[in-house]
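This entry is passed on directly below:
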Amino acid sequence: MYTVISILIIIINIIFIIAAVFFERKKPVHALSWVLTLSLLPVAGFVLYLIFGRAYHIKKKKFLINCDKSRKYCRELHKTLDFAIYDESKFDEKFDLETKQIIKLNVNSSQSTYTNDNKVTVFTSAEEKYRQLLEDIYSARSSIHILYFIIQNDNIGKKIIGALAQKAKEGLEIRVLFDHGSKLLAPLKIYKPIIDNGGEVLCFLSNTISNYLRANFRNHRKVAVIDGKIGYIGGINIGDEYLGLNKKISPWRDTHLKITGSSVHSLQLKFFEDWLYASKKDIYFEDTEKYFMPVNQLDKGGIGIQIVSSGPDTRNEEIKRCMLKLVNSAKKKIFIQTPYFVPDSSFLESIQNAALSGVEVIIQIPAVPDKPYVYKATMSFVADVIDYGIKVYLYQGFLHSKMLVIDDSCCSIGTANIDIRSFSLNFEINAFMYGKEISQRCAEIFKEDLNSCTLLTREKYQSRSIFQKIQESIFRLLSPIL
């Protein structure tokens, strides 16, 4: 009996190994990762591959098919709102050719509208962000749309849910969308006050067997749109740990944006795309101003922004493409903040080339990890950058900020980490911002954070134990599926 089972397991493993090699032929590193997993973990390996591997090539196609309706719907809405996706008359006269090409890349790859009338507040702590978000929620008059990767059942989670329930009771339109993984962190009953008062709450993926086979596709986006005129985007989810209350991973350092201006309309469109997918229901815009409020003079600024999203519902890894274009355009400096540094070969080679070309490249990563296995993979990549003259600094706490600054021309803040998961698997969204003012502001934040960092020298890095190096090597091989 046991012999038959063993033979069956071996046969199934061989089938999956062949499948991994065949279906990942365009990405040999991914194939190698699955071959190793299937070989080292004969039973668990093929279960993992069934959930996280081949099933996703099929499911991604389904995401693309199911999102076609949303894309067409939003294109029609663009026409209704008279959005000019690409208008060079809105460009700052100081924009160089590279900046114009970056904007055009985003227009062509992801239909990302460029707007130049935005005002941006940069939050560097969750306390600031939550205080302002709650104030804006309580001041809302018509609609509040919330999309978060994580909503915790804790003090701040209850405060925000309570505020949303109160506004629903007042008759406002409340929509809350959360990632399916959030159900493991907070029971669905926490949303009952919102639902009981007329609000709508949806999980991005419903409870079906096919969706459980899509568990590897996470909606990592963090977006709030209030009255169609105030938008939030960045790295801060809803939970007490983001306030640094978890002593194991504190102090917590993060970055989030509050935006007013025409780019809020783009955030609203992105929210509706995800809502349409989750609800399978059309939204009728009898009064477009309810969701796309005309920008009044007080809310206007002078910052150029494109909102770019990527994920299983797109084909081109749009956020990564824009980041590569940004890096390749750098002339003086590249500043990177990321909690996880597990880049693919294209991104790694681009920053190596920049450093070899004389561009100053500095990366900040946390000294205190929240996911030890991903951190081990992160540390394995350090050798690939410091050998090229790239400086790596360890933030003395947990750094969750996702920020990229290029010279004094462009910067990006959003939800995407510098890792393969964010580039290829997760639903992500970033604000790409253009111009000297916002780029210098973000560069100053980066430099200020250096005061809380220590330089990871070559000597210190090479002093790691043999056991640690072996662990890092193993997790590096598994990096495409972490």
